[in-house]
Design brief:
148 residues; alpha+beta; 2 helices; 6 strands
Length: 148
């Protein structure tokens, strides 16, 4: 059965820990999920969405490990989605080319252009005077799953 797909890269455990410590030090609330429900701080999952498709696909859900870790760098801070989602804009190894490959496989979404970013809080209130993290954001897997 064809379904919409959620394609993302996930940051490795060491980067998850560093980003969690950085976000808390900056004053971000990590206890709110995208859905608005509560979660433990440790459950916040730092990732970069490559696609949330509007197109339907019959790809199986899978996790693809990179043979060597890739990295991204925080290059800016922004509030998206009517200023409700705090994000770090990132540049990094293969983020654009990974999206381009997914386009070649026919994936489409609502966003006319790709803004690589890492969400750092889904709470309603966010600090605005943010110091960007000065460490590499290392990712080691690409995950394709059904969008829910």
């Amino acid at each position: 059965m064809k379904t919409t797909k959620y394609v993302r890269i996930e940051y490795d455990e060491a980067t998850q820990i560093k980003l969690r410590e950085w976000a808390i030090a900056q004053g971000f609330d990590l206890t709110i999920k995208w859905s608005g429900s509560k979660q433990p701080v440790e459950a916040f999952n730092f990732h970069t969405t490559i696609f949330w498709t509007t197109s339907l696909h019959d790809y199986i859900d899978e996790t693809i490990g990179y043979t060597w870790p890739q990295s991204a760098k925080a290059v800016g801070f922004e509030l998206l989605d009517n200023e409700t989602v705090a994000v770090l804009k990132v540049e990094g190894d293969n983020l654009i080319s990974t999206r381009d490959v997914m386009v070649m496989y026919g994936m489409k979404d609502d966003w006319p252009s790709f803004l690589p970013h890492v969400s750092v809080s889904y709470a309603k209130d966010h600090p605005t005077d943010v110091t960007l993290p000065n460490f590499p954001l290392v990712y080691d897997k690409l995950i394709i799953s059904d969008a829910k």
